Amino acid sequence: MHKDPLAHYDHDHEYDTYRKPAPKKKVKRAKHKHQYSNCLIKATHDKYGFINHWHRGEYCTICGRIKNVYIFDDPITDKELKSLPKFEVESYVERYVTLQINE
After folding, report:
1. How many CB atoms sit inside 10 A of residue 62's CB?
2. Local confidence band at 15 (pLDDT 50, 70, 90 cut-offs)
3. Which domain holds residue 102?
4. Is residue 70 part of a domain?
5. Residue 12, SS3 per DSSP
6. Over the stretch 73-88, which tens digit does the pLDDT of each residue have?
7. Which of 30, 35, 41, 90 could, after both became Cys, cross-link 57 (CB 3.0–4.6 A)?
8. Cα–Cα distance between 34 and 36 in angstroms, integer?
9. Which residues are paired to 96 by β-bridges?
10. pLDDT in tens, 24-77
């Protein structure tokens, strides 16, 4: 009579050692189409040394998402300082600005 050498082995235990794949994180999508507008952005605490200087940028007028900040650009004119909206952020790596609600 031939006995199976693995008959006493717990086969269910073998599958417990493998890790289940982590669920993939979904990218959070906006529920609107971004409408970007020009603005001026100034960082108050930036580790790269570009603090307290106004730089051109683009932000979404609906949610405040920052699209681009042009740090190495031409000097800002007086006309732009007077006409464009200004936002202050902690650092240039921030992704959103706080929008003011006008009533």
Report:
1. 14
2. low
3. 32-103
4. yes
5. helix
6. 788 888 988 999 988 8
7. 41
8. 6
9. 65
10. 777 677 788 889 999 998 888 766 666 678 889 999 988 888 888 888 878 888
Domain assignment present for 66: yes
Strand 55-60 relative to strand 66-70, pairing: antiparallel
Say if 26 falls within a structural domain.
no
* Residues 68 and 55 sit within 8 Å (Cβ to Cβ): no
Give me the residue label for tokens 């890790």: 19
pLDDT digits (tens, 9 = 90+) for 87-103: 888 887 788 888 775 44
Distant-in-sequence, close-in-space partners of 41: CB < 8 Å, separation ≥ 6: 54, 55, 56, 57, 59, 66, 69, 86, 87, 88, 89, 92, 97
Number of domains in the chain: 1
- The two tokens of residue 48 are 């790269």
Q: Which residue has the tokens 């001026």?
A: 40
DSSP character for 96?
B
Distance CA(23)–CA(16), nearest Å, equals 18
- The structure's pTM equals 0.63
